[in-house]
């Protein structure tokens, strides 16, 4: 899947369909993945726990080359690898695993700037435990993916890649 021109690709996330598509330059779907976005729905307000809509881009990519199920806290690998035993010892932890694609909004007042800033809200596309359901809105605002899927997407993505959330 790495043979296509990454610079021409973009990501399209459909919240009502709970899916993410990697698109080619003409808007054709290269691959589609199930995702899980915010339980609280669409919104950009600080502290809302919502997934922001609109035009974004990938501002930072974190986790290149790390093993699947690598655990991140504050965007740094903890040295842990996710397992059911680790999960049992940390109930209620919002697991961020494998890879992080940190998003930045492009629309001032909607998803960029004071009170609504996607980047400052730490909104990512990231891996989640394989026990978490996909296709159901369950996150705290981020877009969660299966670990194998987020690693595959990460390998096709690049900083600056356009991301639309609708």
UniProtKB/TrEMBL annotation:
Residues 9-166 form the L,D-TPase catalytic domain. Keywords: Cell shape, Cell wall biogenesis/degradation, Glycosyltransferase, Hydrolase, Peptidoglycan synthesis, Transferase. Pathway: Cell wall biogenesis; peptidoglycan biosynthesis. GO terms for molecular function: glycosyltransferase activity; peptidoglycan L,D-transpeptidase activity. The active site is at residues 126, 142. The keyword NADP does not apply. Belongs to the YkuD family. This is L,D-transpeptidase catalytic domain. It comes from Marinobacter antarcticus. The lineage of its organism: Bacteria, Pseudomonadati, Pseudomonadota, Gammaproteobacteria, Pseudomonadales.
């Amino acid at each position: 899947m790495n043979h296509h021109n990454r610079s021409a690709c973009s990501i399209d996330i459909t919240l009502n369909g709970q899916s993410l598509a990697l698109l080619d330059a003409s808007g054709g779907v290269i691959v589609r993945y199930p995702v899980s976005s915010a339980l609280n729905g669409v919104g950009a307000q600080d502290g809302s726990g919502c997934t922001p809509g609109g035009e974004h881009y990938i501002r930072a990519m974190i986790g290149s080359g790390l093993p699947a199920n690598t655990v991140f806290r504050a965007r740094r690998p903890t040295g842990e690898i996710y397992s059911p035993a680790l999960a049992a010892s940390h109930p209620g932890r919002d697991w961020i695993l494998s890879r992080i694609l940190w998003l930045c909004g492009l629309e001032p007042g909607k998803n960029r700037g004071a009170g609504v800033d996607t980047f400052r809200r730490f909104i990512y596309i990231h891996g989640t435990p394989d026990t978490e359901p996909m296709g159901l809105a369950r996150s705290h605002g981020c877009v969660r993916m299966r670990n194998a899927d987020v690693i595959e997407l990460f390998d096709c993505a690049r900083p600056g890649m356009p991301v639309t959330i609708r």
